C-alpha cells in the first residue's frame, strides 16, 4: 500500500514539475534564474524505491548539490548500484553512459548505503563538514563588505553584476488555506490574504534598495496550481526570481527514544514537523549563489530595515571580536565604564561560568563570537469591529502587566533616547483583513517572554547597552539579571533558562553566507546544513527529540545547541528594527491574557533593570 501511495505521489510530482518548468519559462516577468531545474532523470522514473529512500534520507527530492560525476564515481556510489541493475535490464548501455550527465551524487555521499540500516559515521568538523575550500576559521571577515553592499544607494549603477547585494528569501508554509485552528477561519485563503501580502512588502522594500532578490517558497501542501503560481509572480516586483517546492513534507519512521521503531509493523509516514527542516537543504544548495539568506515562517514580515540593522549590529560585534584577538590580554573593555565599587561579586547558581551581576565586564573573542543580534515577535492590538478588546476591557490586562510591581517600566527613555517606531515592523497598507493599518507605538504587543527572563549589559564598543534573552546556563556569556538582588519576592526563584514560555520565539533566522559557514563548520554540533546524521542527530534528524518546528525554523538550534546569546539593543531605534510582525495577529485571541505586555512597557522595564545595574556598581 505504501509503495502504491508513493508511486501515485511520484507521478503527480513529475506532472507538476513539468507544468512548473513550462510556466517559469513562459513567465514574462521571470529572469535568468540562478535556480537549477530538477533533472528529469531516467533513474527517478525507473524506480520508486530509490525515490522513496532518497526522500526519506535526504529530506528533499529536489536537492541538487553542486558538481557532476564521472562514470567511475557513480560506480563507486552504493546509492546508484541498484539503479544500474534495473537499467541494465530495461535500457541499452548507451543510456547508462548518458545518465552520468543527468544525476549528480551528493558530495561526500559516496560511502552511504541507503538500502540497509547502516548509517554514515559522524561528520568530522575539520574534514567532511567543510563546504567551501575558501572558508577558514574566520567566517566574519566579509560582514563589513556585505553591509556596504546592502547600504549602497540604489541609484548607484553596478558595472559588475556580482557587485549587487544578492538575497534569497525563503518562506515555509504548511497550508494553502486555513484549517480553522488557532483563531483562524476554516477555508480562508491563507496564501492570498496573509502569506503573499507580507512577502511582497518585504521583497519590495529590498528591491527598492537596489538589492537582487529571489524567493524560494517551500509548501507543505501537495500541489500549487499554475494559476496560484502566476498570482505570486504577478504580485512580486519585476525581475524577482521565484522557485516553488511543493509537496515538501519528508517521510520518516516514528521511533522510540532509544531509536527502535515505535511498533514492529511501523510503516513509513509523513513527518509534518519536518517541513520546517527543509529550508536547510535549499540553503546548502544555493549557499554560494547569494550573499544573504532569510528563512522564516510564512506569516513573518521581514523588511529591508531588519536586514540592515542585523548587519550593522553584526559588524559592531565582529569589530570587538577582532579587537579582542589583537589585544595583549585577549580581551576588549568597555570604554568610559562606570567605576565599580563592588567588593564581592555574585557566583553562578547553575552551570553558567559567571554570576547574574555582570554589568560592564571585559569580553574575550570567544564570548563575542557567541553574541548574536536577536529578534522578538510583535502583534498589533486589533480593536476593529467596535467590540471591546479582551486585553483592554474588564481588568485591563495591559495596564496591569506581569511583574509590574517588581519591575515597573521607566518611561523616561522616550524623552531621552526616543520612542519605538511601529511603522518599521508593522506599518502595513490599509485594507487588509488580518492586519490593522497605522499602528501606534502602544499597540505593539509582546507575549513570548517577560522581564523575569531578561538581563541587561553594557557591551564594549558600538554594541552598547543591550538586553540579553534567555540562553542555556552553560553557554551564558553574562548579564545583569532582572531578578538580581530581589528574586521577584521569591527566595527560591532562579534565573529562567530554556523555559518554553519565556524563550522568545522569533520564527526564523537570517545570516550572511560566511555566518552560515561558521554555524555549520564550527558552532553547531553535527552541523547546520545537511546531511543530518551521526551521533549529534542520533542518526535521524526527523525524530522530535532533535527538535520540532521551533528547533529548525525558530532558531532554537542556534540559541540552544549552537550556544549563541541573543541580544536586543536598548536603543529604541535599533529595538524597533528587532521587532518582527507576526501578521497572523491571532495570538492575542488564543494565548493566555496574562502573558501580554506592550513592547513600550517592556522596553521601559529593561531601562529600569539598567538603572538597577548601574546602581549596583556603587557597592
Give a concise summary.
This protein has 619 residues and is an alpha/beta fold. It is 31% helix and 12% strand.
Features:
alpha/beta, globular, 19 strands, 20 helices, 619 residues, single chain, disordered N terminus
How does this structure look, described?
This protein is of the alpha/beta class. About 30% of the residues lie in helices and about 10% in strands. The protein has 20 helices and 19 strands. It has helices at about 1-25, 40-45, 50-60, 70-75, 80-90, 95-100, 145-150, 190-205, 225-235, 280-285, 305-325, 365-370, 415, 420-425, 515-525, 550, 555-560, 570-575, 585-590, 600-615; strands spanning about 165-175, 210-220, 240-245, 250, 270, 290-295, 300, 330, 365, 370-375, 375-380, 445, 455-460, 465-470, 480, 510, 565-570, 580, 595-600. It has a five-stranded mixed β-sheet, with helices on both faces. Strands 7-18-11-12-19 form a five-stranded mixed β-sheet. The N and C termini lie far apart (about 75 Å). Mean pLDDT is about 80; it is low at about 1-10, about 15-75, about 90-130 and about 135-140.
> Would you identify the regions where 5 or more consecutive residues have pLDDT less than 50?
1-11, 17-75, 91-129, 134-140
**Strand percent estimate:** 5-15%
Distance between the termini: 73 Å
Calculate the mean pLDDT score and round it: 81
Structural class: alpha/beta
Biggest pleated-sheet summary? 5 strands, mixed
The backbone outline, from C-alpha atoms, is: globular
* Helix percentage range: 25-40%
Count of distinct strands:
19
Number of helices: 20
Q: Write down the Rg.
A: 26 Å
Amino acid at each position: 500500500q505504501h509503495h502504491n501511495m508513493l508511486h501515485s505521489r511520484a507521478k503527480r510530482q513529475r506532472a507538476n514539475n513539468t507544468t512548473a518548468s513550462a510556466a517559469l519559462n513562459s513567465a514574462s516577468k521571470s529572469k535568468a534564474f540562478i535556480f537549477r531545474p530538477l533533472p528529469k532523470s531516467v533513474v527517478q522514473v525507473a524506480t520508486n524505491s530509490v525515490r522513496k529512500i532518497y526522500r526519506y534520507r535526504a529530506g528533499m527530492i529536489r536537492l541538487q548539490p553542486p558538481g557532476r560525476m564521472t562514470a567511475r564515481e557513480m560506480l563507486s556510489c552504493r546509492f546508484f548500484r541498484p539503479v544500474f541493475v534495473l537499467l541494465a535490464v530495461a535500457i541499452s548501455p548507451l543510456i547508462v553512459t548518458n545518465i552520468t550527465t543527468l544525476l549528480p551524487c551528493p558530495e561526500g555521499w559516496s560511502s552511504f548505503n541507503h538500502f540497509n540500516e547502516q548509517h554514515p559515521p559522524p561528520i568530522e568538523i575539520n574534514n567532511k563538514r567543510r563546504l567551501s575550500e575558501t572558508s577558514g576559521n574566520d567566517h566574519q571577515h566579509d560582514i563589513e563588505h556585505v553591509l556596504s553592499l546592502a547600504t549602497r544607494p540604489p541609484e548607484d549603477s553596478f558595472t559588475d553584476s556580482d557587485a549587487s547585494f544578492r538575497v534569497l528569501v525563503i518562506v515555509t508554509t504548511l497550508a494553502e488555506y486555513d484549517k480553522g485552528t488557532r483563531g483562524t477561519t476554516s477555508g480562508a485563503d491563507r496564501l492570498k490574504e496573509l502569506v503573499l501580502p507580507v512577502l511582497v512588502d518585504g521583497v519590495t522594500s529590498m528591491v527598492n534598495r537596489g538589492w537582487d532578490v529571489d524567493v524560494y517558497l517551500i509548501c507543505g501542501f501537495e500541489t500549487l496550481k499554475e494559476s496560484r503560481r502566476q498570482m505570486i509572480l504577478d504580485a512580486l516586483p519585476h525581475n524577482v526570481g521565484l522557485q516553488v517546492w511543493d509537496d515538501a513534507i519528508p517521510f520518516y519512521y516514528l521511533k522510540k527514544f532509544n531509536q527502535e521503531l515505535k511498533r514492529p509493523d511501523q510503516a513509513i509516514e509523513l513527518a509534518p514537523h519536518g517541513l520546517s527542516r527543509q529550508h536547510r537543504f535549499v540553503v546548502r544548495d544555493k549557499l554560494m549563489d547569494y550573499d544573504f539568506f532569510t528563512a522564516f515562517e510564512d506569516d513573518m514580515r521581514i523588511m529591508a530595515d531588519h536586514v540592515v540593522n542585523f548587519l550593522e549590529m553584526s559588524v559592531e560585534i565582529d569589530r570587538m571580536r577582532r579587537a579582542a584577538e589583537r589585544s595583549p590580554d585577549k580581551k576588549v573593555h568597555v570604554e568610559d565604564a562606570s567605576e565599580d565599587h563592588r567588593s564581592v561579586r555574585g557566583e553562578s547558581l547553575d552551570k553558567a561560568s559567571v554570576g547574574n551581576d555582570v554589568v560592564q565586564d571585559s569580553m574575550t573573542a570567544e564570548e563575542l563570537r557567541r553574541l548574536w543580534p536577536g529578534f522578538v515577535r510583535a502583534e498589533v492590538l486589533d480593536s476593529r469591529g467596535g467590540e471591546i478588546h479582551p486585553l483592554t476591557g474588564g481588568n485591563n490586562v495591559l495596564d496591569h502587566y506581569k511583574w509590574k510591581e517588581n519591575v515597573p517600566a521607566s518611561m523616561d527613555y522616550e524623552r531621552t533616547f526616543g520612542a519605538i517606531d511601529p511603522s518599521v515592523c508593522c506599518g502595513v497598507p490599509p485594507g487588509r483583513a488580518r492586519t490593522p493599518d497605522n499602528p501606534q507605538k502602544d499597540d505593539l504587543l509582546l507575549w513570548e517572554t517577560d522581564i523575569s527572563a531578561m538581563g541587561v549589559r553594557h557591551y564594549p564598543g558600538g554594541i552598547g547597552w543591550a538586553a540579553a534573552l534567555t540562553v542555556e546556563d552553560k553557554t551564558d556569556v553574562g548579564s545583569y539579571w532582572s531578578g538580581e538582588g530581589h528574586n521577584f519576592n521569591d527566595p527560591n526563584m532562579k534565573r529562567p533558562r530554556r523555559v518554553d514560555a519565556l524563550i522568545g520565539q522569533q520564527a526564523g533566522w537570517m545570516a550572511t553566507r560566511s555566518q552560515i559557514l561558521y554555524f555549520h563548520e564550527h558552532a553547531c554540533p553535527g552541523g547546520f546544513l545537511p546531511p543530518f546524521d551521526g551521533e549529534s542527530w542520533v542518526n535521524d534528524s526527523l525524530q522530535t527529540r532533535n527538535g520540532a518546528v521551533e528547533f529548525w525554523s525558530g532558531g532554537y538550534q542556534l540559541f540552544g545547541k549552537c550556544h549563541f546569546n541573543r541580544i536586543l539593543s536598548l536603543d529604541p531605534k535599533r529595538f524597533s528594527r528587532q521587532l518582527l510582525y507576526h501578521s497572523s495577529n491571532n495570538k492575542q485571541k488564543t494565548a493566555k491574557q496574562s502573558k501580554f505586555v506592550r513592547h513600550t512597557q517592556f522596553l521601559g522595564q529593561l531601562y529600569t533593570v539598567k538603572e538597577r545595574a548601574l546602581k549596583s556598581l556603587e557597592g
